[in-house]
Amino acid sequence: MSEPQPSASSTPATGRLTEQRYDVQAASEVVDLHDHVLKHGESFAVFDSHGDIRPVGHGEEGIYHRGTRHLSGFLLRIAGQRPLLLGSTSKLDNSRLSVDLTNPDLGRGPSRLPHSSLHLARTKLLADGLHRERIVIRNFARKAVSIRLGLRYQADFADLFEVRGMRRPRRGDVLAPLLTERGVLLRYRGLDGVLRRTRIGFSLRPAAIDAREATFRVDIPAGTARTLEISVGCESGTRSRRALPPFEQALLAARRELALVMDGSATMITSNEAFNDWLHRSVADVAMLTSRTPAGWYPHAGVPWFSTPFGRDGIVTGLQTLWMAPRLARGVLGYLASTQATRTSAARDAQPGKILHEARHGEMAALGEVPFRRYYGSHDATPLFVVLAAEYWRRTADRASVDALWPHVERALAWMERYGDADGDGFLEYARAADEGLVQQGWKDSDDSVFHADGALAEPPIALCELQGYAYAARLAAADLADVVGRRDRAAELRTQADELRGRFDAEFWDDELGTYVLALDGAKRPCRVRASNAGHALFTGIALPERVERLASGLLAAASFSGWGIRTVAAGEARYNPMSYHNGSIWPHDNSLIGLGLARYGRPADAVRLLSGLFDASRHFELGRMPELFCGFTRREGEGPTRYPVACAPQAWAAGAIFLLLQASLGMEIDAPAGCVRFRDPRLPDFMDEVLIGTLRVGRGSVDLGLGRNPDGSAEVSVLRRRGQVEVVSGQGFEP
């Protein structure tokens, strides 16, 4: 989805070594399979199951702010020993992490304290740049207890790309810590001249404190409790210490902020409690990943590696959540319009009108050691931006936003014609402008993701299958917007261009022997005859001709492509197929959700239900019911769950959003706000779900509450439970390709 992932490897067909400069290294086993994540604004934190941060190798645990790890070690000890874990979990709304611990056996003889005499409750929360923790120690022994509580800490001030495995020839200077009676200030001056600080404070005065550890002597009478509160502030530049609100007040503020993200959204509940767990976790994850920008709310891509705005990811998440929470799409569109490229830069892969790929903070981005400070190396974000703009109009009838976005839509279209299609053959194709840029600039952006049937890597410029679908959908979307702003001639021109592209695409990309659209055309216009999920996006965008759909859909759902959990990125049997790879055989929930919507739009809602069911079954095996960025593409085996991918982000915005789009696809739901109408085309429900209730679905100035009940054949009946204002609800079969 972002920077490439697999490690460097030689390619058998060419013998060429593929350099992966920005991949997430997986040199050793993930330290903790049950890490817990908190995120707020420009900060995120990864803790182990004890609530600790262990300084093990280049593990991802830590507290991060604006691309820098401000705390790389944080260990709680009782009498020098690690407490015993009773349990830990993230609150369902992701507002806090709760950890229950107890003491191991301590001491000997009369002073012996048996295990499980003390209960330690750790509650952790995160505000933008500020971590708060409360430790409540309750004594269940029948005597007073005096214990030595220790907190060990360290800050490596590593750039996120260093944590991911990149090596730097030199770093800045770690400055001497500054000690106070109740805290310590850790400092680092980067090569970019920025002074970064980690300020650790304690509510109790330590018995001893130094640059690495604070020790407390805590006396607890029988049947009572003592409390220690800890703050970790992340500061940089001129930003300095802020006043700390009371802990309970900070907790309430965190909960309110998360609720505010989804304020005004439609609500959902089903008859299946396990599905509701997945649903609620997904809502909470989207909310947690979403941050404020001057243009509105923007869902960051994922934690830990992609906790920053990504154009493609934000657009897809906006599309997935559009029917229930259109304010996210508005924020995505506003932010991407404000960062749309205005000039050419080879280093940033930017040309006028192009939409942002990603924006990064941190020392390495500031110094240009990585090109991602504001980087435009994705070829698909620009047409998808136009698609989202039109979908947002259909969902909201927000004319003011259309008027504001129209100039940006025109600039995006101009980029597609002048720069996106550099050779003028009518297809979008890419080649990186600088050696530091991404080789592959579609959503599968690993260096080895585009190849020929014999495994040889495709040479640029590369015209991906799905890129042409995005261009087709963008022109039709822009035509609809042109009608809205009174540009009828422009609308007709764009529709003609789209029709011509659809015909040329089918002629050049359809492979009758494979029964699918080829993966891509290489720089010599040779087809990459590979069965891949990319072809499914031709359904999502509508560029696929109706007569191709039966074979295309059958291939995507055949055993070579469909694992039982979802559709693989590359079909089993292809030259570079590897179910453990990042893009060549793994399963991506967002990919499946887009394909599922396409299948439903071509009159195949039962196929969309099949994808929804596969991912639902997979979700029940993942920690917290949280859908990861991707998982391995091994064939489903009875009695076993899916196989995790070792460095997948979890949570990931467009993975969390998959459930909403697949549910929309299964229900055949379309919202036409300009017409004040909600339509259900051949709605279906899976066999594990008897009923779905949708509350406060806003359409224009009105809203409806809806109930959908499953019939024995899988079809669903739609009932209007409550109506406010003029909203029409239509349900029935029928499809217009």
Keywords:
single chain, 737 residues, alpha+beta, 8-stranded antiparallel beta sheet, 4-stranded antiparallel beta sheet, 16 helices, disordered N terminus
Descriptive account of the structure:
- The longest helix is centred in the middle third of the chain and has 22 residues, at 399-420.
- With 737 residues, the protein is α+β, with helices and mostly antiparallel strands.
- The protein has an eight-stranded antiparallel β-sheet, covered by helices on one side. A four-stranded antiparallel β-sheet has the order 3-4-5-6, with no helix packed on it. The chain has a four-stranded antiparallel β-sheet with strand order 7-12-17-16, with no helix packed on it.
- It has 16 helices and 34 strands.
